[in-house]
Amino acid sequence: MEADGSRWQRTAERYRGGRYMDSALAAHIRDVNLELIRKWAPLFARPRVLMTDAFADATWPERAFSWHIHHDAQPVCIDISSVLSLKARENAVALGHCNTSYATADVRSIPFADDSFDLIVSDSTLDHFHTKDEICIAIRELSRVLRPGGVLILSLDNPENLSNPLFQLWLRSGRQPYFIGKSLSRGELTKALSNAGLNVTETTAVFHYPRFLTKVGLRVMRRITPGRCDEWARQALSAANRLECLKTRYLTGLFVAARAVKPVH
Q: Are residues 127 and 156 in contact, defined by beta-carbon separation less than 8 angstroms?
């Protein structure tokens, strides 16, 4: 755990200041995640919410959405890096989100009691492990701490995306700025959730922009028309995201997402 925490601490140092994330793209990612959560999460009264990493809270507050999930929530955010947990807490306080709690923990061994949370949101956390078995271990832990009737919303890199062969080639080149691990297909994810005792009620694919072309295009737009870039980017990203409505969404979405409910016995 210490080695993993140190690795993400070093990654966070490189990411601070928005070096690898355009502000318009960060806002789009935040908004799409919030839209999915509001569509899939029940209207719990004062829900206890678990987020499975604090990377965005610590490095790009404009991308973070944990503070906006529910106006009356009791959010808890865990991260494998103690430095990221501390920085996320500092950002939360500075931005007036003092009700969010942060803890240093490994999602493969969550230090909370069984049936602790009404809602769990895991936004591309589990696709940073070396093996698929570790993903399944983490899913079982998430199921354990989810209360009966509670909802888990989980997203992972989508291996069925049409650009995945190019993405894998890029990973093998060693040029990625952070560690990207194994992932699960939609079928594998559904099976893993079911094996953990959860009922999968919905799946979809999210973020339908071309991964590499979008980042290059945004950099070019910032140089050519900096004053109009945010508005044009918002319109283009919103238009691309309409691909989620099509049957081909699992071929165009960068991430596969699932909604799972813990049965009430």
A: yes
